[in-house]
Each structure stands twice: as structure tokens, then as C-alpha cells.
């Protein structure tokens, strides 16, 4: 068997293993999925009128605010889902599963690839479910072309891949599942201080650079542009650059920690 065939076979096996874990322990996935759904419902039905009036210059339009909010919530969904990846990898490390895999005659990278592929699939499924809830409460994207929908899906997948590799690195360096969950909190916190809920221009001047110069804001603004027809500007290439940089950083970090001799 060639090296490529071995890598594909072992990675597929590890992917099936991780998907079985999701099926056997659905509570973790359910918890991270409920957070963006609750945030969506909270900001639409509790704060939606006030928030839309503030953004719209005094005119309350809940449907317009739903359209503004949903792209940010979808990105938040990805951040929350990858926390489960960090916890899963940390549990494998703490329980000695990864140490055991290191001694087996399998492709070395298949362990991490299985976690990454499984997490990206979970992210996609979570985004679809949250998107379905958004459509059910009134979100519409009537002006987006098929090519723009395809680009939006590609952006979401690329963003999920980038955050997953970062989450894998966090899981590998965490001593236990609780630490992994805490270390991955920025993946939930950063969307809260981005343009998810209000435009950056509406934020205090000293806070605007914090919201602008981070990976979530350009990705959210690009997704808004693709789905709603708003101006994308420089956010498109910034979003792709952030995704590629985080993917490379997370991959190199995870590979370095994984190949490190256990103490």
C-alpha cells in the first residue's frame, strides 16, 4: 500500500472514530450548538427592536436586524463548535489514547486529520442547523446568486478549518478537558467584540481597533456582502488571509506538539 493510500485509510478510520464519539456523547455538541441559537433568539426577539432602531437611525426594523445579525451568528457557531474539538483532543491526551496511537503502525498524521475532518463536518452541520433556525424566524437572502452562495459556503468551511487547527493545538497543550475548554474561550469571546451585533462605527473610538483587527470581523463582513449584497471592500482578502494564516499556524503548532516526545 502506498503512503498516500495508507494516510487516506487511517485518516478515514480516525474520522469514523471521532464521529462515533459525537454520536455517543451528544451533550457536548448540543451545548455548543444551543449557545448561538439562544443568542440569535435573544437578540432578535428581546433586543431586536432597540438594536435595529439604533442602527437604522431611529427606525425599528426587526427583519433588517435579523439580516444583519445572522452572518455573525454563523461565524460564532463555528467558534463554539471548535471548543468541542479542543476538549476532545485534550481528553485523548489525558487518557493516553494519543500515546497509544503513537505506538501503532498507522499513519502518524491520521490522528490529527481525523479530529480536524470530524470537527469541520460538525461545524458545517451546526451552521446548517443554526441557518435553518434563522430562516424559520425570518432571515432571507434573496439577492445572493448561486456563485455567492458557493463562495459563502467556502468561506465558512475555510474559517472552520482554520479555527479547528487552532483548537487542536489548544487541546494538545491542555492538561485536561476543563483547561482545554477555558483555553478555547477566545473562540467564543472574539465574536462578541466583533461586528456581530452592531457596526464598528457605532462602537467607542478607543474600542474600534479591537473589534476591527481580529479574524472574525472581516469574515463576518465578507459573509454579509455575499449573502446580503453589502460592500465587501478589503474584507474579502483579509478574511482569506486570516483563514490561511490561522490554518498554517494551527497546523504547525499542532504538529510540533504532537510529534514532541512524551515526558
Structure summarized in a few sentences:
By secondary structure, the protein is an all-alpha fold. The chain has helices at 3-24, 26-45, 48-55, 62-94, 97-103, 110-136, 146-173, 177-183, 186-192, 208-212, 216-228, 235-259. It contains twelve helices and no strands.
What layout of secondary structure does this protein have?
Blueprint: H1 3-24, H2 26-45, H3 48-55, H4 62-94, H5 97-103, H6 110-136, H7 146-173, H8 177-183, H9 186-192, H10 208-212, H11 216-228, H12 235-259
Helix pairs in contact: 1-6, 2-4, 2-6, 3-4, 4-6, 4-7, 4-8, 4-9, 4-11, 6-7, 7-8, 7-11, 7-12, 11-12
Describe the structure using short key phrases.
263 residues; elongated; 12 helices; mainly alpha
Account of the 3D structure:
By secondary structure, the chain is mainly α. Helices cover 77% and strands 0% of the residues. It is built from 12 helices and no strands. The model has no long low-confidence stretch (mean pLDDT 86).
Amino acid at each position: 500500500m502506498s503512503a498516500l493510500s495508507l494516510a487516506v485509510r487511517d485518516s478515514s478510520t480516525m474520522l469514523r472514530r471521532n464521529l462515533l464519539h459525537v454520536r455517543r456523547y451528544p451533550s457536548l455538541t448540543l451545548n455548543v450548538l444551543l449557545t448561538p441559537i439562544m443568542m440569535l433568539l435573544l437578540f432578535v426577539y428581546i433586543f431586536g427592536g432597540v438594536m435595529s432602531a439604533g442602527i437604522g437611525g431611529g427606525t425599528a426594523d426587526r427583519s433588517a436586524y435579523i439580516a444583519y445579525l445572522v452572518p455573525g451568528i454563523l461565524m460564532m457557531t463555528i467558534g463554539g463548535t471548535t471548543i468541542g474539538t479542543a476538549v476532545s483532543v485534550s481528553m485523548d491526551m489525558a487518557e493516553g489514547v494519543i500515546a497509544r496511537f503513537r505506538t501503532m503502525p498507522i499513519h502518524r498524521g491520521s490522528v490529527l486529520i481525523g479530529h480536524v475532518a470530524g470537527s469541520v463536518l460538525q461545524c458545517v452541520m451546526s451552521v446548517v442547523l443554526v441557518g435553518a433556525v434563522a430562516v424559520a424566524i425570518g432571515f432571507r437572502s434573496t439577492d445572493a446568486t448561486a456563485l455567492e452562495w458557493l463562495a459563502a459556503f467556502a468561506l465558512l468551511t475555510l474559517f472552520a478549518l482554520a479555527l479547528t487547527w487552532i483548537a487542536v493545538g489548544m487541546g494538545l497543550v491542555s492538561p485536561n478537558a476543563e483547561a482545554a475548554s477555558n483555553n478555547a474561550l477566545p473562540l467564543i469571546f472574539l465574536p462578541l467584540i466583533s461586528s456581530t451585533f452592531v457596526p464598528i462605527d457605532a462602537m467607542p473610538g478607543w474600542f474600534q481597533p479591537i473589534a476591527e483587527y481580529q479574524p472574525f470581523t472581516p469574515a463576518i463582513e465578507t459573509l454579509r456582502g455575499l449573502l446580503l449584497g453589502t460592500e465587501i471592500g478589503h474584507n474579502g482578502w483579509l478574511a482569506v488571509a486570516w483563514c490561511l494564516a490561522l490554518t498554517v499556524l494551527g497546523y504547525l503548532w499542532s504538529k510540533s506538539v504532537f510529534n514532541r516526545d512524551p515526558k
